[in-house]
Write a structure and sequence with these properties.
The protein has 506 residues and is an alpha+beta fold. Helix content is 36%, strand content 24%. The chain has helices at 6-15, 20-39, 97-103, 124-151, 221-231, 233-236, 266-271, 276-284, 299-306, 334-338, 343-352, 361-366, 370-378, 398-406, 412-416, 420-425, 430-443, 453-459, 465-471; strands at 2-4, 44-49, 52-57, 62-66, 71-81, 94-96, 112-116, 157-166, 169-173, 178-181, 197-208, 211-217, 240-248, 252-259, 289-294, 314-319, 324-329, 355-360, 476-477, 484-485.
């Protein structure tokens, strides 16, 4: 007996979004379950393997066939036996030769023959089991299809409607499936009511006994990334890239952006005319503050940008290997740089992936930080290239650099202060010292501090007496009367005695 399933197939394909292959497989499984129930064929049977009794699937002799015009038939495959000689052990699996030849005159003992099964003979229990099977199969297929569809959308924005709430968790109607927005994934600024429109990001898709669970989030940093991509065309077409997004939900979000084209300002593109694009993002985040700043490969500049809205006077790298830095600000900018409960500097730490300490100028002046002091002093000795250490100079002798480093004279300013005796103790060859001094002269602009007047006078060449007299304006006393006289006088103005001056070399 053929069963026309064309209408059922079309209905399932439209309403359940199932493929025709899945529908055929479901119908096949359903008819097999009904056949087993009708003819009392068990699903499992016992067998002994290596002396042990185990359960194995019981064989079934039903054959399901589908025609091109969407009709299905069920047949029973039976073995032909001679009932008079051997008898029939199981009418479900065997048929007498005489009965078989009524269906096929060429039938012989030992052959197998397909016998059409009339489904109208299935009892109520068979139909009930078949119905349960088909419903379960359709549900499993639908869940699998939904799971695969939503699993590929993890990280994307989806829009649904507030359905119900339980213990702070919100269940969102997404159409064919229900979304789950846990309380921990909600911003403290947000409040939703029934039928409110909710935009969220899919973070996970899980299979549960009740179906699939779509886990949503509105606090994930990638949620802001996705919203920015939707609001800014330059981000969508990759003209502007997003380096990193960090967020403290309900307080502030920091976004570092860069441009792939020199003629495009990444921050301006994200902010938009009169801040219209930023305002759209802030509105979606229920008023949360959003800082859009420019990414910079120079850590000092990037740290300055990351601490916005504070204005940073200077950034000093304390330890490049440990990624530790110090930001120096004016007293008025300290609260802005640190932020409420330290949130601004914490977000900046995450954004730049450095450990940042913020100090005022007065606090920094009182700090005893060797590295910071060396960095500050080195600015007096280096020009644009900022070579602070001997080892950083191009073409420097590695052996000399290592010797100086072991003797704590790796910094250029420390090397310059070394005496000849100290250099001799380090066993550095004269030609190596000459080469090093030439490198320093070539790459470093040394600004010498002014020497005291007494030391400068001793180091200077002797000046002509006439020039010395002109520069010296000191007064002396007459040896006869004690009157005041100057070096340009030849006679005392008081007693008239002749005067002469002599200079002794010291």
């Amino acid at each position: 007996m053929e069963i026309d399933i064309s209408e059922a197939v079309n209905q399932l394909m439209q309403e359940r979004n199932m493929s025709e292959e899945h529908i055929r497989r479901t119908i096949e499984d359903t008819l097999l379950v009904a056949y087993r129930r009708r003819y009392k064929i068990p699903e499992k049977m016992k067998e002994r393997v290596n002396g042990k009794e185990i359960s194995v699937p019981a064989p079934i002799n039903a054959v399901i066939r589908f025609s091109d015009d969407k009709k299905v038939s069920i047949f029973a495959k039976k073995k032909i036996v001679d009932a008079e000689e051997d008898g029939i052990s199981s009418p479900v699996f065997e048929i007498d030769l005489e009965d078989a030849r009524k269906l096929n005159p060429d039938a012989e003992v030992g052959d197998e023959i397909l016998i059409p099964v009339d489904t109208r003979n299935f009892n109520r229990g068979s139909i009930r089991d078949a119905k349960q099977t088909i419903l379960r199969s359709i549900r499993n297929i639908q869940n699998t299809s939904l799971y695969d569809g939503y699993k590929s959308k993890v990280g994307e924005i989806i829009i649904g409607y507030y359905q119900r709430e339980r213990s702070g968790d919100i269940y969102v109607d997404l159409g064919k499936v229900e979304g789950f927005l846990p309380k921990r994934n909600q911003s403290p600024r947000e409040y939703f009511r029934v039928n409110d429109r909710i935009k969220a990001m899919i973070t996970d898709v899980r299979k549960t006994p009740a179906g699939i669970e779509i886990v949503l989030s509105r606090v994930h940093p990638d949620f802001v990334r996705a919203v920015l991509t939707l609001e800014v065309p330059e981000v969508y077409d990759k003209t502007v890239g997003i380096h990193r997004v960090v967020r403290h939900p309900g307080y502030r979000t920091k976004i570092a952006v860069f441009s792939t084209r020199e003629d495009v300002d990444p921050v301006g593109a994200c902010v938009g005319l009169k801040g219209v694009r930023t305002q759209a993002i802030i509105k979606e985040l229920e008023g949360e503050k959003v800082d859009i700043l420019k990414y910079d490969t120079d850590p000092c500049n990037f740290i300055k940008n990351a601490l916005s809205p504070a204005v940073i006077a200077d950034v000093i790298i304390l330890d490049e290997n440990k990624r530790q830095a110090l930001a120096v600000v004016d007293d008025s900018q300290l609260p802005l740089a640190i932020g409420k409960q330290g949130n601004n500097v914490k977000l900046a730490n995450k954004l730049v992936d450095w450990s940042i300490d913020v100090k005022t100028k007065s606090q920094f002046a009182e700090m005893d930080i060797t590295t910071a002091s060396r960095r500050a002093v080195s600015e007096l000795f280096v020009e644009a290239e900022e070579y602070a250490r001997i080892s950083e100079l191009p073409g420097v002798d590695a052996e000399v650099a290592e010797i100086l480093k072991k003797n704590n004279a790796d910094f250029i300013e420390d090397f310059i202060r070394l005496t000849s005796e100290q250099l001799m103790e380090m066993e550095i060859k004269p030609d190596q010292l000459d080469t090093l001094r030439k490198l320093i002269e070539e790459y470093v602009d040394i600004i010498e501090e002014e020497e005291p007047v007494a030391e400068a006078a001793l180091a200077a060449e002797p000046e002509p007496i006439s020039e010395a007299i002109e520069d010296i304006e000191e007064e002396y006393e007459c040896p006869e009367c004690g009157a005041k006289i100057t070096l340009d006088m030849t006679n005392c103005p008081n007693c008239g005695v002749g005067l002469s001056f002599e200079y002794e070399e010291i």
